[in-house]
Write a sequence for this structure.
């Protein structure tokens, strides 16, 4: 882990029922979590209120997405104002499933980030390359282009956590090695230093996501530029998620 406060987010994706979420919240409420870690969970929109009303305040709540601007006539969307209203502190933006399944583009994601920040939300800003991009030696180019879209849109990096999530590692059980993750995290920090500022580079947390679980988190957490994790599948199991939170070194 680096010098910033360790940050672990649980992305529940499109999973859960009222009953399964009641159980998960109870497990999280009874887990013992290291004090010096920011812990966040991202339930599906429709369960945010249930989670907000039952989960310990120790854990903050994130949405998994939001609309690009002010709410209004946008059927099926949820606005940043509404997320604030319901008690969310964070929103995940640019997740690979939204980029590659839904088709969201870099500049649209950048605009979402800027609007969410303007509403007082923190942004978990995801980036990451596809397998074919990695194999073609384009990992850094892809990540830098995605970073640039955020940098071009946002006025400040104070409330942004960057999540590096190689697409080939998400939901596949194929975790990046600590070296592979560290190499990209250093490159991202270097990009921020040159293109935003050395101060932003040193204080922005860069977390890793992609098949993190209770068994591989400790090795990843030893790396100097890995400031935490964004966890999908393993965040649906309270005790395992707690193990990942407590992997802070
Ligand atoms: C994610 O969805 O952000 C993620 C990293 O998923 P998983 O941990 O299941 O690979």
């Amino acid at each position: 882990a680096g010098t910033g406060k360790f940050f672990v987010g649980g992305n529940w994706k499109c999973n859960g029922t009222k009953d399964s979420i009641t159980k998960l919240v109870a497990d999280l409420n009874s887990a013992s979590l290291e004090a010096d870690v920011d812990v966040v969970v991202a339930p599906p929109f429709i369960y945010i209120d249930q989670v907000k009303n039952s989960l310990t305040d120790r854990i903050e709540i994130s949405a998994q997405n939001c609309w690009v601007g002010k709410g209004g006539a946008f059927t099926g969307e949820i606005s940043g104002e509404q997320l604030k209203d319901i008690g969310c502190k964070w929103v995940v933006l640019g997740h690979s499933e939204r980029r590659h399944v839904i088709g969201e583009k870099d500049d649209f994601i950048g605009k979402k980030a800027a609007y969410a920040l303007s509403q007082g939300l923190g942004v978990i800003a995801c980036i990451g390359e596809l397998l074919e991009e990695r194999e073609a030696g384009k990992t850094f180019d892809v990540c830098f282009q995605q970073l640039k879209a955020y940098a071009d849109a946002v006025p400040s990096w104070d409330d942004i956590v960057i999540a590096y999530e190689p697409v080939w590692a998400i939901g596949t059980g194929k975790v990046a090695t600590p070296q592979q993750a560290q190499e990209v995290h250093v490159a991202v920090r270097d990009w921020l230093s040159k293109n935003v500022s050395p101060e932003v580079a040193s204080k922005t947390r860069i977390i890793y996501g992609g098949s993190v679980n209770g068994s591989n988190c400790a090795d990843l957490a030893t790396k100097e530029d890995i400031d935490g994790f964004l966890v999908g599948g393993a965040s649906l199991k309270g005790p395992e998620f707690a193990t990942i939170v407590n992997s802070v070194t």
User: Anything to note?
Assistant: The radius of gyration is 17 Å.
